[in-house]
Amino acid sequence: MMLEQDPNRDDGAAEGLLRRALLDDTSAVAVSLRVGGLPLSDAVTVIFHGRRDLGTLQTYVTCGSRGAGARVAAHELLRVPCDLDLADAGDRDEAEQLYLEQATTLRDALVGADVVLDVWREPLCELIGSTVTIDHSIELSVRLPAPRLLPTALVAPDSQLVVTPVCSARTLAEGRPPLGIACAQQDFTRIYALADDPERCVEDFLQFAAEHARTLAERLEHQEASVERFLELSDQ
User: Fold this and answer.
1) Is the pLDDT of residue 23 over 60?
2) Could you give the C-alpha distances from 129 to 110, 123, 124, 125, 159, in angstroms and in order?
3) Which among 14, 62, 70, 135 has most CB atoms closer than 10 A?
4) Are strands 71-73 and 2-4 parallel, antiparallel or unpaired?
C-alpha cells in the first residue's frame, strides 16, 4: 500500500502534519484489509499504519477496494480511532493470531454499520420528504461529537441533515467498539444506538430539530425585544 502526498493540501494544520507523517515511509509499514459487498459503501479498505520512529499504530479507512501497491492520497484517509494492540503477543505467530482476531472485529463493525445505515435510508427519505444522497466525503459539512467509522453518510441537502456511523475510541484488543448512528444538522447532533429502530430515531430527531428551531426563534425574538427597549431609552 503506497501513501502519496496531495500537493494541493495545506500541510500547516495539525491534521495535515499528522497525515504528512504518514508519507515518510522510511520507518513505516502499512497493511491493508479490503472489505467488500457493502450495500452503501460497496467496498472500503482499512489501512493499519505503524511507525517505529513515532511509536504509533493507527487505523485509517478509505473508499474503494485498494489492492497491494495501490496509491492512496492523504486526503482520502479517514482516521478511525480503533487501533490494533498486539503488545501481548509473545512471538510472531501470536501476533499474527491477534492481528487476525482484531482485524476481523473491525471488519465486522464496518459491515454492521454499513448495513444499518442502508436500513436508515428508506425511512429517512419518507419522513423528511426529500431526496437523500450517499456521500463518501472524508470531510463533512457538520461537526460530530464522536469519531466517524466509515467514509459514508446519508445527506439530505434540503434540510442540511447528515446521518453517518460513529464509534468510540478504543483498541481492538478490547473487542468491538461501541457504535452508533449520528444525526446532525449545522448546530446540533444526536447519536442513536445501532440497534434502535431507524423510523423512531428519525421521528425523534425531527421533533428535536423542530423544538430546537422554536427555542432559537424565541431566543432571537427576546433578544430583539431587549435591543428595541434599549434603543427606546436612548431616544428620550
Assistant:
1) no
2) 28, 10, 8, 6, 10
3) 62
4) parallel
Give the integer Cα–Cα distance in Å for 193 and 103: 23
Number of domains in the chain: 1
Per-residue pLDDT reduced to its tens digit, 36-87: 999 999 999 999 999 888 888 999 999 999 877 778 888 899 999 999 999 9
Q: How many residues does the chain have?
A: 236
Domain assignment present for residue 146? The answer is yes
Angle, helices 198-235/92-128, rounded to nearest 10 degrees: 70
Strand partners, 51: 28, 56
pLDDT tens per residue across span 88-122: 999 999 999 999 999 999 999 999 999 999 999 99
Taking only the tens place, the pLDDT of each residue in 149-192 is 999 999 999 888 999 999 999 999 999 999 999 999 988 899 99
Query: What is the distance between the alpha carbons of residues 26 and 5, in angstroms, rounded to a whole number?
Result: 15
Distance CA 9, CA 77 (A): 13
Would 32 be classed as within a structural domain?
A: yes
> Residue 50 is part of which domain span?
2-211
Task: Please calculate the CA angle 149-151-153 and round it to the nearest 5 degrees.
Answer: 95
- Reading the block at residue 49, the C-alpha cell is 499504519
218 in a structural domain: no
In a domain, 109, yes or no: yes
Grid coordinates given for 89: 503477543
State mean pLDDT over 114-134: 93
CA atoms within 13 A on the CB side of 181: 29
What distance in Å separates the CA atoms of residue 28 and residue 25, rounded to the nearest whole number? Answer: 5
